[in-house]
């Protein structure tokens, strides 16, 4: 102690200033390197080294989920080239305007749909429910104007005018079912009338579609109307508890119009089959539609993960798995969760109820927060029904999230994440909803630590430069006390 005291008494203020400047410089270099490593790889270098190399030396072990098998480079590259950025899709499970969205607004006073979302729907209606021959029929001419109306009451009034001109105007019944009906029962009544009128018009169009290009366009329009009506009737049956009837209607629709797979009717079927707990049928649907060459969806990826988790979730324990390692079935479940989380990392927080849900929009952005809201809104109950599934998701999703390629320009299983995702989601989701941003990775502890260390040592260097004698006394006092 006497030797240390003598040594400290001989040190000058310049030594302490040089020491603090050097430590500040070194900690700054460490911070810059940590930040660069995190931006490039998405992990802290110090944390990675400590977990991978130091922890095993002191007897610790951590079971990290294995990396899933990569798909062929050709398929992956083709999917990346063919996938347009920020393409907005119609939500296969969108709710009914009058019976669900409007009722929410009446109760809460909040508008669940954005203008951008409703404008996209208006464009959809004009594209699918109108054609060049509408000018030949007064009722269709009125409906052409109705789809362009911004005011809901004006659209409803126009639909009634169309029915006065033609009692078999299917698109008028569709509009009334969507917007005037305040219950699902009323909506179903309107859709049944639309189905009767739509089938009659569809048969007429089939008989004369080869006569001219105008007749072909009319057949396409009448086909779109018929498919839309049948799908919404199946959704009405699902919402009213007639699940088996809904499943039959969806299967018949997919069999009758196999070329309309882009409408994603299979996602309605998956949700209904999960409600029936017909897991073998769900697997059969997934086997047909879960293909790397097709655009993925959260419904497909997370349903596949749910089925894999179902096989092991009841007996899964993180403590046991860390001791004995993962079994083959558990590895398959973890890989499926990894794949789902990479496709859409927003979903787990909704399924684990770490973030509140809102009504799903009428359009969704694949891999975005809007798709996560739409998926979790309908599928949360299916995850809760399988014992231990949410626990397995909770134990694994954060680890798989850290394995997601970073930054955005990279991709592992899927095409790179588009940079315009956040802006598109903000236009689709209501203003009162906090939009998730991908990939919002939290800064590791060691980045905070090195930043604090750098700032603290820089402050000491500044104080030593300004008050050298005072800082020497302080340093000696701290050394003696310690």
UniProtKB/TrEMBL annotation:
Belongs to the ST7 family. InterPro entries: ST7, TPR-like_helical_dom_sf. This is Suppressor of tumorigenicity 7 protein-like. It comes from Alaudala cheleensis. Its main location: membrane. Keywords: Membrane, Transmembrane, Transmembrane helix. PANTHER family: SUPPRESSION OF TUMORIGENICITY 7, SUPPRESSOR OF TUMORIGENICITY 7 PROTEIN-LIKE. The chain crosses the membrane at residues 15-36, 445-464. CDD domains: ST7 (cd11557). One of its GO terms (cellular component) is membrane.
